[in-house]
User: Fold this.
Amino acid sequence: MSKMKVLLTGAAGHIGQAVLKPLQEAYDLRTLDRRPVRGDADAIRAELEDFPAIRKAVAGQEAVLHLAANPSGHAKFDALIGPNLIGMYNLLQAACEAQVRRVVFASTCQTILSYPWEHKVEIGDPVRPVSIYGSTKVFGEVLGRYYHDHHGLEFVGIRIGGFAGYNARHL
Assistant:
């Protein structure tokens, strides 16, 4: 039985490096990052803003795990436009054109952190981003909804609260 073909973006990042090996074992994995990917000599090096490169990376894949972005909660808008806005559009558009079945998107809890600490956020609560970065992730979630509703792309957005890695020492 053949393994599912999955593209992992952001494979050189903190989370990407932590999940790389288990994903390589479970899937026919293709990786993409703007930097070299430790653990994958065949990784595609490209910026998310480069639509032809993203289209080529997505071709033939069944699913995409999209971890790539500028992850800085303190980044200025100009530094977020390319990877977080244009890159998100490029990835979803390329996935749609390539008839990828599902995109799993790494969002952030920064999309709802402007609620008071004591407020229990419910699934129906509106977003309340705490940063411009969080706002770009709201854009990614909403764009994913658009591609689901209008193009049938399965889209899963996961709001990550924090990530320490598998081997991190816990207090």
Observations:
- DSSP finds four helices and six strands in the chain.
- The mean pLDDT is 95.
- The two ends are 42 Å apart (CA to CA).
- The longest strand covers residues 102-108.
